[in-house]
Records
---
Amino acid sequence: MKILLMGHPNVGKSVFFNRLTGANVTESNYPGTTVDYTKGWMKIEGEDVEIVDVPGTFSLDPKDRAEEVAVSMLHESRDAKVIAVIDASKIERGLYLAMEIIEEGYPLVIALNMRDVAEDKNITIDADRLERILGIPVVSTVAIAGEGIKELVSRLKEAKPVNVDDIIANAANASDTESAADAGGAA
Amino acid sequence: MAGQSSGGAVYFAILGVVTTAFGLADLLVTASGSEFAYGGILEMPGDIFRGGWGGIIVLFAGLFYLSGIRNFDDIHQFAKVVMGSILIWVVAGCDIFAMITESIPSWNEETGPWFNTLPDFIAAYAPPYAPAVLLLPFSLVVIYYVRKRASGEDGGGNSP
Amino acid sequence: MKLNTGERWDLIDRISKETVTFGAYQHTLKDAIGELTVKPMTGIPVAIAVMYGFWSVFGSFAGFFTDGFFVRLFDVYWLPWLQEVFPGQGDWLYAIMVDAGGFESGEFVLSSNCLESFGVLTSGLFVAIGVVLPAIIIFYLMLALLEDIGYMPRLAVLLDTVLHRVGLHGYAIVPTILSLGCNVPGVTATRILETKKQRFIMMTLLAIFIPCGAQIGIMQDVVPGLMGWILLYLIIGYFIFGYILNKIVPGKAPEFLIDVPPYRRPMLSNIGKKVWGRIAGFFKVAIPFVLLGCAIVGVLYQLGVIRFLGDALAPVFVGWFGVPKETAGPLIAAFLRKDLAVAQLSAITMTPYQMITAVVLVSIYFPCVATFAMMLKEGWKELLGALAVLTVVVFTYGGLIHLIGILLGVA
């Protein structure tokens, strides 16, 4: 099995990579630290899994060499699972990339990283609800402190391709039940 | 609380004036190409690096203090005061680090021991000190205000 | 099924409305300090202070190890011992490995220190371990600290306006600073730049104008008083030729949006790992090159190649660059080992201004073989272009520095 770590620049992909594989990829607090991909190995339930630290990219429509590396990496690994690392304090942008990857039919797990930064900014994310809407595992993490990594690994096997139509339907349903609940509360 | 804050403003106003004066004096001393010592505790470095470059930073630190004291409670103003202290820590930290690295080897070119003798080692830390080192203890007061602010925020009381 | 951009954003909007709550946003002290460090009025003083700190700690640390211990260890103990025990004093192997020595009134005399002996085991080891290693350790330590705190992107934002003048965006500061340690990772880091044009300009400027840690270490050791002037000339050159390249190289230099991450408390373990990784990388790449370069220079000296080239090119050096005839040899050898060349230059008597010119020339010469190989990997066209630019720069800028000296009346 092969797992790609993808996400925007400076969301902590390399931190995940090092946590997962015990490798020593350079981690920095600035975007663009990883400009080439790095591969490593880990064991999940006895199975050898290849992990790839992909350079940061904003979308699947590459703007520079590092992004080209990222996108071609994804396209070359048709059978891979993807961990989409999202900066929890900038969730919309991260979801955009995640959605693009979902649309291409890759099985996905979302790591909502940098929860601590989001908390600093007073942003709260309902991860369970997000998980129900997207139909894929969503795990809150603070990779730099090691929080949530175990859960992420244990849920990798739940990653599966989802149909965008289902997500659209779920999103519509979610808002319906919400308004219904609101109405009930008001009455 | 307001009284305490204005106390802080007055304190940093005075520190700001002193720091600015030190910075300017250091630049003047450097420009005149001499050294200046006072009362056995203060010695202004006269070289272009520590006196000139370092002097400018001390001057900046003073200006940060002075520009931050008005509306001391406002977070953006207070940040300037904190930044003033950080600049002093940078210069003083470098001065102290230089003292440490200079105090350990004997600097003998040919023979003799590798390390400094104990009396010489201790003597390296005796006054006079550079302006930033003298300002260092006074600049640390800002930590008290940072802590006070942090505990104030936890209690929900934050200034607009 | 695939969505188009608009549909995708719509969907995300709906999802995030369901799942994300934005609380009242309060400015924290961290945010306020973050803003201070990017606004020019307050950010420039902070940047000046950061550079002061970087340089001061670098100088103290490197001086502590090099001048405090290594100079004495190598000059007083290692060199005389090797001179004594290594067989065949005066023959070619001795000259290459230990001490080329010198001739005074027809008699062979041994060198008195490790910068003048030019042996692989003496000068080579001294430069690699005594001078470069401490410089590299402290450089990467400070760099890792600045990176992990999150200061680098702020410096990039701050410098964006200035760097745009030379066709680069603020992010160019990252490869530039990395190159101060070693040009090889600097060249790799240019991949974050978007267009070929930007990458070419950046690589060329790095290779020509940014001295690496080994050079800085040795300059700090042998010509500390002139460092400021040398670096000033290099920075000015970086901007002048960046500006010119931006005008003449075809292509676009688009705007780049930088994400400024929050300040973070650096993690000691991460810094340790990173510094160790970089030092290990430096050892693997640089140390063999220092020793090998040293050996090749030694062989060329023994064969008389450098003396021959030096004599042939001496008129150019004297007439065009205004440096003494004796510098011709070191300046030629500098193509292989810049650090040793600087040491060699420091042993020749000349005016301070001539010394500045000579050291600047050594610095803008082509980078070490490792960087050369790295640039070749990025594309041979770029490498040839960079070589052409280099040749032009050496002659025009070298001449210009001479001219400035003449006008100031110091050359």
---
Amino acid sequence: MKPNENSRREFLAATLLAGAALAGCRTNPFTPDEVTDIKPSGKMVKLLSVDGDIIEVDEAFLKPVPELPVVTNSEARVGIPGKKFAMVIDLSRCKSVKKCQTACNHMHHIHPGQNWIKIYPMQDSEKTAPYWQPTTCMHCDEPPCVKVCPVDATFKRKDGIVLIDSDRCVGCRFCMAACPYSSRVFNWEEPKIEKEIAAQPYSCETSVPQKIGTVGKCDFCPDMIRQGSLPHCVSACPNGVFFFGDILEDSVTNGSETFRFSELIKDKAGYRLMEDLGTKPSVYYLPPVNRNFPFEKEEKNA
Amino acid sequence: MEKIAENKIIEDLMPQQFGKKGMIWVISLLVVCVFGFYAYCRQLYYGLEVTALRDYVSWGIYISNFVFFVAISLVGSLITAVLRLTNVHWSTPLTRIAEIIAVSAIAFASLIIIVDMGRPDRFYNLFIHGRLQSPIIWDVIVISTYLVISLLLLYFPLLPDLKIMIQYKERNGKWLQKLYVFLGSFWKDKPAQFKITTKAIHILSITIIPVAFAIHTVTSWLFATTYRPGWDSTNFGAYFISGAFLVGAGSVLIAMYIFRTQYKLEKYITSEHFNKMGKVVVLLALIYLYFNINEFLVPAFKMKKSEEEHLMGLFTGEFSYIFWFAISASMFLPILILVFKKGRTPKWAFVAGILVVVGSWFKRYLIVTPTLLHPFLPMHDVPKNYMHYFPSWEEWAIAGGSLAGALLVITFFARIFPIIPIHETITETDTHEKV
């Protein structure tokens, strides 16, 4: 209403911005580092420049590039363009070696005792045959967890992956109640992880470091995908149970074997879990027929 | 009501200082509160690890306590709004009791939901990143609306009473006098002021009904919007609302009895009130029973595989003792007591009220926890203690502290303000005389 009010508000905003700018200047990215302190060793190293020329640099000036997150968290919310990821889990090959689980726990620095990948001993009814069923996050196309999250901390990307922003999660655990696959775990206490890992800035794509009071789950390892590698569970499995790939390319691979996704699903009668709920998972299962291993209930493999 | 002189009414209804019993009551509540606060400090320091909540049972007595508080707060809308709009006059002396129960319960419901959060330090995220499609945000919106309307419904009818109390300066003492003047010195008993407040109260009474239905329906949707057996029910909204009216009415019975006996209000909260409230409770218990039959009989008839484990756990399994206790205490026994005229005496109505409230608290526990112990995929690959749930002492202390806190708010309110509207009682006596 009052013109004064407006100009006062603008003034305040301007002051705040100026303050922020000044604060930013203290660590001016354009000031050179203390390069002057380094004394040339006289030993030259040949390097390939970005232009493709071979150049020589004194060894003393070489500095290892610190490992930076590949993408910012706002990019991580969008996803990898032109992709739609899917996983195929071949139940006929699983004998619950749990290497997938170990690799996943290790690479994501999950709190001891908790697992993002679970390997269930399943028996659908009394007379039917038991089998092992590994579960990851299903990365549903209609994710019930994303629907209920009050703060957009868990989100669905264009490439089909469902991720969690642990810097935003308020810890209400509604997503855990909503997920029918029990794939979410909660950090009830300060996660027991190495100090250096805990000090890293959180990345939605690595899901590291896990933070107290927030939810964690399988992330399909988008950081590995960006590097052109397979998720940790896929490469860790000695029996090639997990296949990973892009539905738009219609191919999935477990590292050593590659299939046309559509043909594999057709030939082996692939299915998804709890289809009747309408969650539309991105994880497909191949039924446990013509098995590579007998089902042994003793958890000696664990 | 027999003729009572105006001064006598004022004398009877003015707030009284705590007696010996009152002091013991207040101090014991304070002790429970402080203990609960200590437990919460531990939870803030160590995280939710101090609770018995784990990945499967990720909601426990905090959430069931939250549901209980939201439920009990609905009574404000029942007594002040529904009965006011239907021209039921006998409930006038109960309106303020109902409204303060509503306000303190809804305030503690909001607190307990923050207690349940893994990251209470990020509470502001609900406002800066809130997304309207989440039922939690619906709950935040309707609960805060309900709190505001309830506060106004408590405040507006208080204004004429404040004017009366300001006149007793010596009696009030310095602090209370300041408070009364701050809250109500602008009230001059002018007809225009009465006209505005009457209209405002009328509008609020109408608006609070849909909002009250919304708070508890949305609370039921926190469960019913998931797929889980025991929660995945289209009956849930109505089931929650009917249960809420019942527990609220039960709590009013308790409060009526305590205020009547402790403040010697036999002339104002008469046995006729217990008679009538008793009938209301029977009706509400029957309605709740109807929705319970719907909620359990229909799935039990089909016994779908996913529901079977859950239902059998309630009927004959692990939770059967609590289940049958809650059903009989919150419905069967109160109906049995209050359906007979002899049962609708103050003492028996008080017993029935306690049964309703205690039974209802456990009923809320049964709505939240057993479902979470029966996920779709079997519980596996987790530490052993993840497969059971019994609240830790910190959880009991915090839940107990919140209940004590709510009682403390009601107690202090009755110490500071007249718990029975003075001005309305005087006008109603006058109209009676004229008739």
